[in-house]
Amino acid sequence: MIPPPYSEFPEIASEDILLRKIRPEDVPVLVSISYYDGKKATNEAEAAMMLKNIEQDYISGNSIHWGIEEKSTGKIAGTCGYYRGFKNDSGELGCILLEKYRGKGFMSRAMRLAIAVGFKKGLKKIFAVTSNGNNSAIKLLERLNFRRTGEEDHEIHYAISREELFSIRAFRNDEKEEILKLLRLNTPKSFHPSEEKDLREYLENEAENYFVVNGPGGIVAAGGFNTGFDKGRAARISWDLVHPEFQGLGIGKKLTLYRIEQIKKLPGIEKIVVRTTGQAEKFYENMGFQKRHFEKDFWAPGFDLYQMEMRIKKRTA
């Protein structure tokens, strides 16, 4: 793992929350949820001292502590972070919210962001601990793909590893809106707004072999392939989407390799074609695809067509 401190403190944003560095003006709001070494702050001065201790832990490479900001109001909703060091490339994740923000999904979204940045920084395993009577926390951890690893002194221990983070399965028709949301999250950086109509039509009428990637909290990626091109000799990779929070963790590569293996099993297929944009050209090139055709502004203004191909090497018996 690349341990803290970092040249820039890692701030991470989702659609509606921001994990950011805690500021002095946040301290009065956070007194009721300020803890250090198992002790709870009873006043503002104690909370400020605890924050200084946590900041020192960050400088020493043993902690990353974020405030959870509600983006629409700029108000702090709670705290989240990794504590107790990073021995063996592992980290313990904790999160706590102010009472008025509980039950609104803030913790789930904050934990997702923290999980993603933890693995991007090189963690191999993330731990979490909760009391055996905290049913809401237990349900949350299990929704985030944590597995129970043990119980001790009325505490339940959970963990998730990099290898367990994602699983691929077939797309279901009732998941269309979740896939469209992935597209919107990548618009306009990777897709033009006009392409949402095309994706909806594809999912409703043309999704032949489409797959989703389950990750913490739900679907974090999707992609498929279609057959029947070039007189049955070609399969075409279709509609690759990765949630921005989880980009950089190898999901796209894992899903592409999975589909390549599925295509190789099909009789008569000699090549795999992908029609993409300049934003993804390098990714597919690194996967072994070669550019065969280019057309400017094919998808929309500023979104050029890069048609790329990979020849299939069939396994011999």
From TrEMBL:
Pfam families: Acetyltransf_10, Acetyltransf_3. One of its GO terms (molecular function) is protein-N-terminal-alanine acetyltransferase activity. Signal peptide: none annotated. PROSITE patterns: GNAT. Residues 17-167, 166-313 form the N-acetyltransferase domain. GO terms for cellular component: cytoplasm. PANTHER family: GNAT FAMILY, PUTATIVE (AFU_ORTHOLOGUE AFUA_3G00765)-RELATED-RELATED (PTHR43792), RIBOSOMAL-PROTEIN-ALANINE ACETYLTRANSFERASE (PTHR43792:SF9). This is GNAT family N-acetyltransferase. It comes from Salinimicrobium profundisediminis.
